[in-house]
Amino acid sequence: TKGYIGTGYNGVADQQDFWEWNQATNVWTVKAPFGGGVRRGAIGFSIGTKGYIGTGFDGSSEKQDFWEWDQTTGIWSPKANFGGAAREGAVCFAIGTKGYIGTGWNGTTSYQDFWEWNQSNDTWTAKANFGGTARRYAVGFSIGMLGYIGTGSDGTNKQDFWEWNQSSNVWTPRTGFAGSARAFDVG
């Protein structure tokens, strides 16, 4: 019954603040600032009552760190650094007790890799590379045991849409996004 927004760029500076919205009271409350410092272009997902933020750009370099926020204590704790190279503009989603991060770029090179984070032992495992072209600022979400990534930019905005099966570790192309090709969208 709570939603969270944090980090980002306000047009002047990168941000570190972190906010909670309460559905029942319709009130925003400031929480402890993100433990990894200022950044934009980061990823964020939740598993149970824990929130996770990682990667991104702090105004001078791409990041590889990964942090857990405990809703009960309000404390940020560093976790194992993301298994891939430092990046911003990656995509993420969670399935069960696993988090997934892939694609993104380092300001010069776009990535196609895809990684699984295991909440129970804080480890990263490389999975099958994303089925589309290497890209940044795509969109990702999960439905049940399947993950989806689409759109984004590989230098050209994309409309393709891909399904990833957690049990088989296989990417399958699906019907492309019906709207215009785009990047920087949200799912």
Low-confidence stretches: none
Biggest sheet: strands side by side, in what order? Answer: 4-5-6-7
Helix tally equals: 0
Number of strands: 15
Strand content: 35-45%
Question: pLDDT average, as an integer?
Answer: 97
The span between the termini is: 19 Å
Main pleated-sheet profile = 4 strands, antiparallel
Write the element-wise H/E pattern from the N-terminal end onward. Answer: EEEEEEEEEEEEEEE
Kindly report the oligomeric state of this protein: single chain
Write up this protein.
The structure is a single chain. This protein has strands at about 1-5, 20, 25-30, 45, 50-55, 65-70, 75-80, 90-95, 100, 115-120, 125, 140-145, 145-150, 160-165, 170-175. By secondary structure, the protein is mainly beta. It has a four-stranded antiparallel β-sheet with strand order 4-5-6-7, with no helix packed on it. The radius of gyration is 16 Å and the shape is globular. The two termini are about 20 Å apart.
Task: Quickly list its features.
single chain; mainly beta; 15 strands; 0% helix; globular
Which helices and strands, and how do they pair?
Blueprint: E1 2-6, E2 18-22, E3 27-30, E4 43-47, E5 50-54, E6 66-70, E7 76-78, E8 91-95, E9 98-102, E10 114-118, E11 123-126, E12 139-143, E13 146-150, E14 161-165, E15 170-174
Antiparallel strand pairs: 1-2, 2-3, 4-5, 5-6, 6-7, 8-9, 9-10, 10-11, 12-13, 13-14, 14-15
